[in-house]
Structure formats: structure tokens, C-alpha cells
């Protein structure tokens, strides 16, 4: 065993070469209310006093554990040859030289970097003093680390020599060291009386703390020793006590101290319990462990920690320590130094975290109440500090210190699990452990997310300088951008760390943000009454934010048990698109309602004046189309992404408004049936009647009527033929502009970069179907109404009331053609060229129909002979020539098409009466099957004139001016000559 007493000087040591503690003023770091679990262990002793007491215990423990006794060398000899030998011959543990040839096992076990940290500036290799090489030993290193002077060290060692000489072979744990030191050291051993008295008071206060304040065993209330001991201490604080061997006061003190210190559960007196009570022993041990930190930089653990810890562990017997308490105390020291030195050395945090894992294992195996109490106190401090950062980790951690976050989170989770387990005095199952970690981490995520969200919202609300900018973005729109950035930053930086304990860390984060933003959005939406740029921007930003958040949540939950359903269920949709759609629909409804009101109001004031503009359509059409176009343009300027979805609603509304305009435009204008005269009851003409006088009177009356009828209907000029032509033009203009609107809409859709523009163009969109159909129908109706109004209403005096009344030769078609030509000129010059042919064709059809009505249903005032047929056919030719107009009018094919019926009926007027009667009888028998030649059923009037239709033949017979026809009609149907 002799080898362990040798000095093992190694030149590679870079530790202290000076033996006087440096007068270093350590930087002061805020400990942020980090409460030490040992702070009340010795309230009457300062840190420096406790440090000196701890050093005394350490030296005594090292002396006691060695096999070679300490020897004393006088100060004069030490000064003569300092380098030749130490002042005292220490125990092997103190005497051992420092070695740094091997990496620290302790650092390796704690996961700390070895040899890579910054070194102390006072270190160096062996220093030569003269020709002698000085070697630094573990004892000297510890002395310097604990800031103990050489004079104090020498005094302690002298006292220990004296104690050893007086109590040979007695171990340190079997004596009360302060009591023995009080006995051995006198005032002469100190530089001054004041120092001696202070030293004496310190030892007495240490005894008070160990025996009275924190005794190893509870004190009995009936025991008088504590009270007597307390009185001695109080007296000593005022006047030093005599500590000589034969001093009565010293004997009384020894008796009281030993009676208190030698108590034990089993009655054994082999060990003195004077400094092993909780938490005094841990406080002293904490001070000893602090020697493991560089005296010049307390954030650095010395490289010689293995040797120093080996030395410190020799105090376990005195302090009542064991490996579990060592781990617990060392955990606190590492953590405390990390916080106290400004959290600059992550190695300390990492080591504390690893050591906490060992403490967790220890906590499972012990049920000691003192251990549990200290454990709870330490973990509460650690957990409180860690949670203060984790509950707002966005403020505490960033890219520069993110590596420390995992250790902080681990400290918090493990500490929380240990405390939960300890509180129920049983170790929870692994599932419960995961639940504790899961719950804690989720709480941190939600708390920090809510705090950060609130900070961002507050910052935006207070940023009034945005208000002066042109078109500033609303706060919630800017907030959505910030939250999106926060979410992706969370996913990249923090979620990977938290995922160790919570598989859906990113999902929880975005779900929390989703909820926070959703609350603000609800308030915003509740105040929206109409579509505004701000509302669209906010809802669009919210929709984009939600999609980003859901994407993160879904991506984070791919491998989870429930596929992320729990997180997604926690994110009820904002339904921003639906809200936007509702607002846009409301906007559309408002525009459509306004347009409808405008149509109703302005159409009542429209005069349909052909001279309103050169295009000769109504100004109201221009205005209504302008409103429709502006509405479409405003719709596409809305900052939304759902134009294709909502466009059909808008187009449908506009379509119905235009349809309403079209329907009102043609409303009241009449139809073909409106202007057709009522056919008189079937009768026969008055043969041989003379109407010369009557016709003369009629002509003056007819001329007067004609003058009043042209262009008017009962005095209402808005329905005259020119006005009807303007209405036709108006519908044609609307019809053409609908095509322009559709093309422009497709272009606007494509400009919005949507994929449905071609669908709209290809007819998948609704377009303006109702309006287009209404225009076609309206143009058809108005053209027909114009034609039949002109022929049967405005020109009834020369057609229905004048043509062939009386003798055919004196009432030919010329007056009708003259006035009809005027109307054709009006229509031709007024109606749009695309509709002109149709309008004139309808006039032609009405004229042909009117010509036939005069011939077949003209009543008893008209009578035709066989000789009249030639004039009638000539008149019809004049009528067709008017529309052909020498090739400048209607196409001959069109004229032939619509004149077929007339040309089929006209030959009947040159057919002799007997043939007509025979043909009538034959057709009637075929149709009605009668065999009685004297009685035939009266064929109904169908209005579909045809040379082989009985009613047509009957009407030709009715207007035939001869006796044969009259007799047949009288005999067969008893038709009257007059009505």
C-alpha cells in the first residue's frame, strides 16, 4: 500500500501553481428567484464560515481514512525549504499528485465534454522556483478551490495533529470535530484575538446547527441538555469560553455535546451524529462539491473532478451521506451553477439532466422520508425554473440556444414524473409516465403558443404607424401572416424537440394557434354586415392560414395511432370560404336588387323615341347593360379565389334582371291575336246591292281615320309602330351585347387564372340563357305585334273597312298599298338591319292574312262575281310586288313561301258556282259522312284557309254574288243576307 502515499507529479497538469487563493471577484448573475433547498440549513453561518467548516471536515475525514499519521513541520523549517516537502505529511488522498493523462470518468458518465472547455487563466504546467520543480497535489487544489488560505490550512492541520496525538486511532466519525478543535486551538494559534473569537463562535454555531437545529434524531422535550447547550452558546456569543483541558466550562460543554451527539436509534455510541442531520449535511456537502468548479470561472468543471470527488466522498461517514444523496446534491450543484453563471455553459445543464436520470432510478428504490423531502424540494426548484422558461419557451429559446432546450424540457418532464411518483409512494406504469410527460409537454406548447399569439396581436394592435400607409392591411390579415411564420418556425425548431415526449407536438401547436386565431376571427366576423375589402382580406388570410395549419397537423400525425383525428377534431373549420361566399352572395343580391329597382323605375319613364340616339334603341338599354357590365367588373375585382364558383349566382341574377327588362320592354305591346279583327258571324252577301252613296261618305270618314291612326294606339304614343320598332331594336341590342358580356366574362375568368373559364365558354356555365331566350322570343313577338298592329289596327280603315266593300272595281287595294308602303319605310329605316327582314316578313304575312280575311270573312258588305276574280288576283300581285320591290325587297322565295295559301285560295273566286257547290258537297260528305244531299253540317271555322277545306269553300260561296249560291245557302243553312 506504500505506493498510494507517493507524490505522483505529472508535468502535464495545468492546475494551480499558486497556493494562495486568488482574490477573484466572481461576476454576479441573477439567480431569478431560484430557491435553494438548503438555504435555511445554518441561518446563523455565512457561506465563508460554512466553507471553512466544510474544509475542516474534509481534512479531518482524509486524515482519518489514511493509515499514515499526520506530522507537523515548524513554520521556520517550511520557510527554509518550501519545495522540499509539504508543511504536514498529509494522508495519501491529499498527498496524491494531480493527473490529467486520462479523460475524466465522471465527466464521461455525465456526458460532459472533457478537455474541450476553456481553461483557467491561472493554470499552467509545473512552475520552476529557482531550480526546484513544484508539484500541485489534490489537497492543494482543493484548498485553493475552496478559497482557504495557507495559514488557515496549517492551523487546521496542527489542530488535527494534536487531536490525533490525544486520541490515537480514533476515527473522525466517532468524534465531534468542532468540539475537539475548540479544545486544541488557542488564541495564540490565530493572528489576533478577534479572529480567534470569531473562529470559536463559528464552531459553536455549527454545533448549534448540527445538534439543535437539524439533529440526526429528534430531541426530547423532557431532555434538559438542549436548553443548557443553548445557554452556553448564548453566553459564548457575548464572552469567549475557556477551552482549556481542565476548564469547567469546557467539561460542561463536552458533556452536553457528547450527550446530544451520541444518541442513536439502536443505542450505539460508536458514531457521533453532530453534522449528519438534514439538510445541514447536504448544505455542507454542497459547499464541498462546489470545489469541482473552477475558482476563476464557476461555469467550468475542473478536469481533476475525479480526484476531487474521490477526496470529497471521504466525508460521507461524517455527513451521513451515500451515493443517492451524493447524486441528489451534485444534481443541485450542477443545476445551480448553470443558472447562477448566466446559463452560458450548456455542459452543466446537460450533466444535470443526465444525473437526474440517475436520481429518478434512486427515487424508485427508496421510501426514506428525509430523502423524499429533500428530493421534492430540489425538484420543485428545478421544475419551477424550467417551467418558467418552457411555459413561454418562444421568449426563452431561439436559434442560438436551442440546443439547451431539450435538456430543460427533459429536466422538467423527469422532475414532474418523479414528483408524481413520489407523491403517491409508488412507481407508476410506463403508460402513466408517458401520460405525465405528454401532459406537461402539451401544457408547455399550448401556454407558450397562447402567450406568443397574444404578444403578436398586441404588437400589431399597438402599431399605429401602419395606419398612415395607403391601403393598410387589416390587423387580422397581418396576424395571419405572422402566425403562419410562427407555425412553420415551430415545426422546424421546437416540435422536433418536443416530439420525444409528445408524438403530436406540432399538431398541438398549430391546433392552439388555430383556436387563438379562430377566437379573434369570430369577433371580427360577428361585426361584418357587408362585403368590404378588409373582410375579404381577413377571411382570405384566415383561409390560407387554416390550410397551412391543417397541413402541418396532418403531416405531423402520419405515424400517430389515430392518424391525427384528435388534433384535426380540435380544429373546427373557420369556414372562411363559406363566409366569403355568403358575403359575396349578399353583395350579389344587393346589386341585383338595385338593378331590378332601377329597371322597374326607369322603364316606366322610357318614351321609346326613335330619335333618342342614332342607333334608335332605348337609352335605358344602354344604362342597364352598363350596370350589368360594371357589376361583372366589380365582381372580378373582388380579392377572392372563388370567382368560378360564385359567378353562376351573379350571372343568374343579372340574367333574371335582364329578362325582367326584356319582359317589361315587350309588355303591353300585344300579339298577333291582339290585333286580328273578330270574324263576323257566317252570312251571305247582299246580291245586287248598290253602295255608291255609302262609299262616298266612307271615303271622307276613312281619310279622317287614317290621319288619326298612323303611329298611335288610342292616343298612347309609346306603342306606336315607330316606338315598337325601337323596342325591337332595344331587344336586338341587348341580344348582341349579351354575347359581348359572355366573351368579356371568359376573358376576365382567364385573367383570374382559374381553370373553369373554358367551361363557361363551352356552355357549362349558366351564361345569360334566360335573357337570350327572352330576346329571341321578344323580338319575334314585337315584330309580329308591329306587323299586325300596322295592318289590322293602323290600316284597318283601308283594309278591313275599305278593301272590296261594295263593288270591287271601286274599292281596289291601292289605298292600302299606299299607306302600307309608308309603314314599310318607317320599319325599314328604324329597325336594326339584322331584324329588318324578319319585321318586313311579318308585315307581309299580316298583309297576306288580312287580304284573305277580307275575301273569306269580310261579311255581307262584300260580294264577288266571277269577273271580279281577275281584279282580285291583280291586287294580290300588286301586294306581292310591294314586298318584292323589283328585287330590292324580300327574296322571291320568301314571298312565294308565305303567299302559297293565298295563291291556293284565289282560284276559287274564278270557279263557277255549281262547281264550288259540288266540291263543297263532296268534301263535306268525306269529312262528315252524311247521305242527305239537302242537309249538310255547318263546317267549323278553323282559320286555316285551304282550297280543299269545307269552311273555306263555304265562305267563298257566301260572298259569291249570284242566285245559285244564294239558293244553295238558303236551302242548306238558311243563312241570312244581313246580320
UniProtKB/TrEMBL annotation:
Top-level taxon: Eukaryota
Domain MHD1: 536-679
Record-annotated membrane-spanning stretches: none
Compositional bias segments (type: Polar residues): 68-77, 90-103
Pfam family, one: TPR_PATROL1
Coiled-coil portions: none
MHD2 domain residues: 810-920
Biased composition (Basic and acidic residues): 119-131
Sequence segments annotated as region (Disordered): 1-21, 68-131
The name this protein goes by in its record: MHD1 domain-containing protein
Source organism of this protein record: Manihot esculenta
Lineage of the species this protein comes from: Eukaryota, Viridiplantae, Streptophyta, Embryophyta, Tracheophyta
Amino acid at each position: 500500500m506504500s505506493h498510494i502515499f507517493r507524490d505522483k507529479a505529472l508535468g502535464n497538469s495545468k492546475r494551480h501553481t499558486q497556493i494562495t487563493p486568488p482574490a477573484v471577484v466572481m461576476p454576479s448573475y441573477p439567480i431569478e428567484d431560484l430557491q435553494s433547498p438548503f438555504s435555511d440549513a445554518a441561518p446563523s453561518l455565512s457561506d465563508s464560515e460554512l466553507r471553512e467548516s466544510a474544509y475542516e471536515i474534509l481534512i479531518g475525514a482524509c486524515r482519518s481514512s489514511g493509515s499514515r499519521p499526520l506530522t507537523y513541520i515548524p513554520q521556520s523549517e517550511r520557510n527554509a525549504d518550501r519545495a522540499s516537502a509539504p508543511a504536514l505529511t498529509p494522508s495519501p488522498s491529499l498527498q496524491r499528485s494531480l493527473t490529467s493523462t486520462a479523460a475524466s470518468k465522471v465527466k464521461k458518465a455525465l456526458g460532459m465534454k472533457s478537455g474541450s472547455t476553456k481553461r483557467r487563466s491561472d493554470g499552467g504546467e509545473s512552475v520552476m522556483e529557482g531550480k526546484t520543480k513544484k508539484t500541485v497535489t489534490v489537497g492543494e487544489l482543493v484548498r485553493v478551490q475552496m478559497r482557504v488560505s495557507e495559514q488557515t490550512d496549517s492551523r487546521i492541520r496542527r489542530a488535527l495533529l494534536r487531536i490525533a496525538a490525544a486520541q490515537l486511532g480514533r476515527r473522525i466519525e466517532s468524534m465531534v470535530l468542532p468540539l475537539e478543535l475548540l479544545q486544541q486551538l488557542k488564541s495564540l494559534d490565530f493572528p489576533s484575538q478577534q479572529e480567534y473569537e470569531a473562529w470559536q463562535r463559528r464552531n459553536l454555531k455549527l454545533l448549534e446547527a448540527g445538534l439543535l437545529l437539524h439533529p440526526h434524531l429528534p430531541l426530547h422535550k423532557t431532555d434538559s441538555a438542549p436548553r443548557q447547550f443553548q445557554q452556553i452558546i448564548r453566553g459564548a456569543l457575548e464572552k469567549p469560553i475557556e477551552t482549556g483541558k481542565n476548564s469547567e466550562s469546557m467539561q460542561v460543554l463536552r458533556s452536553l455535546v457528547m450527550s446530544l451527539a451520541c444518541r442513536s436509534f439502536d443505542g450505539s455510541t460508536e458514531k457521533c451524529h453532530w453534522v449528519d442531520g438534514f439538510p445541514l449535511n447536504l448544505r455542507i456537502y454542497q459547499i464541498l462539491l462546489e470545489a469541482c468548479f473552477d475558482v476563476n470561472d464557476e461555469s467550468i468543471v475542473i478536469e481533476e473532478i475525479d480526484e476531487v470527488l474521490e477526496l470529497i466522498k471521504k466525508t460521507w461517514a461524517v455527513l451521513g451521506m451515500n451515493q443517492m444523496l451524493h447524486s441528489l446534491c451534485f444534481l443541485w450543484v450542477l443545476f445551480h451553477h448553470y443558472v447562477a453563471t448566466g446559463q452560458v455553459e450548456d455542459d452543466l445543464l446537460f450533466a444535470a439532466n443526465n444525473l437526474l436520470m440517475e436520481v429518478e432510478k434512486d427515487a424508485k428504490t427508496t421510501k426514506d422520508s428525509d430523502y423524499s423531502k429533500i428530493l421534492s424540494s430540489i425538484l420543485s426548484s428545478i421544475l419551477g425554473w424550467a417551467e418558467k422558461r418552457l411555459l413561454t419557451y418562444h421568449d426563452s429559446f431561439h436559434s442560438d440556444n436551442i440546443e439547451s432546450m431539450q435538456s430543460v424540457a427533459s429536466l422538467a418532464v423527469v422532475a414532474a414524473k418523479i414528483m408524481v411518483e413520489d407523491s403517491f409512494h409508488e412507481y407508476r406504469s410506463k403508460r402513466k409516465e408517458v401520460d405525465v410527460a405528454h401532459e406537461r409537454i402539451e401544457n408547455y406548447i399550448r401556454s407558450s403558443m397562447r402567450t406568443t399569439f397574444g404578444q403578436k396581436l398586441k404588437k400589431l394592435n399597438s402599431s399605429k404607424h401602419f395606419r398612415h400607409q395607403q391601403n393598410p392591411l387589416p390587423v387580422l390579415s397581418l396576424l395571419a401572416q405572422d402566425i403562419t411564420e410562427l407555425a412553420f418556425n415551430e415545426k422546424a425548431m421546437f416540435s422536433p424537440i418536443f416530439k420525444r415526449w409528445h408524438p403530436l407536438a406540432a399538431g398541438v401547436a398549430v391546433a392552439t394557434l388555430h383556436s387563438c386565431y379562430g377566437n379573434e376571427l369570430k369577433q371580427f366576423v360577428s361585426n361584418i354586415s357587408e362585403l368590404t375589402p378588409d373582410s375579404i382580406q381577413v377571411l382570405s388570410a384566415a383561409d390560407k392560414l387554416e390550410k397551412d395549419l391543417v397541413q402541418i397537423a396532418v403531416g405531423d400525425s402520419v405515424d400517430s395511432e389515430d392518424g391525427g383525428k384528435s388534433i384535426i377534431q380540435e380544429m373546427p373549420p373557420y369556414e372562411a370560404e363559406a363566409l366569403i361566399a355568403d358575403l359575396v352572395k349578399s353583395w350579389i343580391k344587393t346589386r341585383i336588387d338595385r338593378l331590378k329597382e332601377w329597371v322597374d323605375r326607369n322603364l316606366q319613364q322610357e318614351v321609346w323615341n326613335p330619335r333618342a340616339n342614332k342607333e334608335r334603341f332605348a337609352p335605358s338599354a344602354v344604362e342597364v347593360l352598363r350596370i350589368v357590365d360594371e357589376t361583372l367588373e366589380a365582381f372580378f375585382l373582388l380579392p377572392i379565389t372563388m370567382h368560378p364558383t360564385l359567378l353562376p349566382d351573379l350571372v343568374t341574377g343579372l340574367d333574371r334582371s335582364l329578362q325582367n327588362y326584356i319582359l317589361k320592354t315587350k309588355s303591353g305591346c300585344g300579339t298577333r291575336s291582339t290585333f286580328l279583327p273578330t270574324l263576323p258571324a257566317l252570312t251571305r252577301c247582299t246580291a245586287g246591292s248598290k253602295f255608291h252613296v255609302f262609299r262616298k261618305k266612307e271615303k271622307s270618314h276613312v281619310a279622317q281615320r287614317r290621319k288619326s291612326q298612323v303611329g298611335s294606339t288610342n292616343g298612347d304614343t309609346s306603342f306606336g309602330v315607330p316606338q315598337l320598332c325601337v323596342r325591337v331594336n332595344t331587344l336586338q341590342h341587348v341580344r348582341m351585347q349579351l354575347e359581348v358580356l359572355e366573351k368579356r366574362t371568359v376573358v376576365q375568368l382567364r385573367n383570374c387564372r382559374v381553370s373553369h373559364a373554358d367551361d363557361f365558354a363551352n356552355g357549362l356555365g349558366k351564361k345569360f340563357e334566360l335573357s337570350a331566350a327572352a330576346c329571341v322570343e321578344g323580338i319575334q313577338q314585337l315584330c309580329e305585334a308591329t306587323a299586325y298592329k300596322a295592318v289590322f289596327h293602323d290600316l284597318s280603315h283601308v283594309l278591313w273597312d275599305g278593301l272590296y266593300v261594295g263593288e270591287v272595281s271601286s274599292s281596289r287595294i291601292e289605298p292600302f298599298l299606299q299607306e302600307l308602303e309608308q309603314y314599310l319605310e318607317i320599319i325599314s329605316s328604324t329597325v336594326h338591319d339584322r331584324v329588318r327582314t324578319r319585321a318586313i316578313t311579318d308585315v307581309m304575312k299580316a298583309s297576306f292574312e288580312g287580304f284573305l280575311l277580307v275575301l273569306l270573312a269580310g261579311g255581307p258588305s262584300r260580294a264577288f262575281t266571277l269577273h271580279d276574280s281577275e281584279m282580285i288576283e291583280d291586287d294580290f300581285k300588286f301586294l306581292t310586288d310591294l314586298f318584292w320591290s323589283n328585287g330590292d325587297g324580300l327574296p322571291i322565295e320568301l314571298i312565294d313561301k308565305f303567299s302559297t295559301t293565298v295563291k291556293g285560295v284565289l282560284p276559287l273566286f274564278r270557279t263557277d258556282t255549281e262547281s264550288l257547290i259540288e266540291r263543297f258537297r263532296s268534301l263535306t260528305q268525306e269529312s262528315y259522312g252524311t247521305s242527305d244531299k239537302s242537309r249538310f253540317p255547318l263546317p267549323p271555322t278553323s282559320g286555316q284557309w285551304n282550297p280543299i277545306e269545307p269552311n273555306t269553300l263555304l265562305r267563298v260561296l257566301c260572298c259569291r254574288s249570284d242566285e245559285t249560291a244564294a239558293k244553295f245557302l238558303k236551302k242548306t243553312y238558311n243563312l241570312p243576307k244581313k246580320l
